[in-house]
Amino acid sequence: MSEPLPYRPCVGVMVLNPANRIWIGRRFGAPSEPEGPGTWWQMPQGGIDESEDPAKAAVRELDEETGIRSVRIIAESADWYRYDLPVNLRPKAWGGKYGGQKQKWFVMRFSGQDGEVQLERPGHKAEFDAWRWAEIDELLGLIVPFKRAVYEQVVREFAPLVKAQS
């Protein structure tokens, strides 16, 4: 029996606008994408570089995926959350080196204008083909099923913060 694949270190970002709605992007629904075909939305997330501080990685990934820079971190998840990729997707994602991701999540307050969002930028492959602001209660129904358990944990942890600031 082969050794299980490791988890890819990753960050996730819940960006709140002044109305406490959450930034979500729509993933490309292409068979070549790790999630497979479908219309899935998610919050920004991405890998942590070697020796990179997770908070710095979260700010970097948010900028790379959305162009958003006008933020400040207001919370960090108490734990790392993990999800497993479906077995059929493992060879396609991250060169087949990982069985899933372990994620540290951050909540950030957005203080800019919507025009700051740029999904297509020179030097960065677009992660999303559309974006919008969503209510926290919408998130679980929009995420690809294999990431849903992580989103349940993130929503549970951060919902009191989101609702307290409404």
Strand content: 25-35%
CATH architecture: Alpha-Beta Complex
CATH homologous superfamily designation: Nucleoside Triphosphate Pyrophosphohydrolase
Q: What is the straight-line distance between the termini?
A: 51 Å
Number of domains: 1
Question: What kind of sheet is the major sheet?
Answer: 5 strands, mixed
Rg from Cα: 15 Å
Shape: globular
Helical run tally: 3
The CATH C-level class name: Alpha Beta
Low-confidence stretches: none
Structure characterization notes:
The protein is of the alpha+beta class and 166 residues long. The chain has one domain: Alpha-Beta Complex (Nucleoside Triphosphate Pyrophosphohydrolase). It contains three helices and eight strands, in the order ββββαββββαα. It has helices at residues 54-66, 139-142, 148-164; strands at residues 7-16, 22-27, 41-42, 45-47, 71-76, 81-84, 100-110, 128-134. Strands 1, 4, 5, 6 and 7 form a five-stranded mixed beta sheet that branches. The termini are far apart. The mean pLDDT is 89.
Summarize this, please?
The protein has 166 residues and is of the alpha+beta class. The chain is 20% helix and 30% strand. The chain has one domain (7-164): Nucleoside Triphosphate Pyrophosphohydrolase (Alpha-Beta Complex).
Helix-strand layout with pairing:
Elements: E1 7-16, E2 22-27, E3 41-42, E4 45-47, H1 54-66, E5 71-76, E6 81-84, E7 100-110, E8 128-134, H2 139-142, H3 148-164
Parallel strand pairs: 1-7
Antiparallel strand pairs: 1-4, 2-3, 2-8, 5-7, 6-7
Characteristics:
Nucleoside Triphosphate Pyrophosphohydrolase, 20% helix, three-stranded antiparallel beta sheet, 30% strand, 166 residues, five-stranded mixed beta sheet, alpha+beta
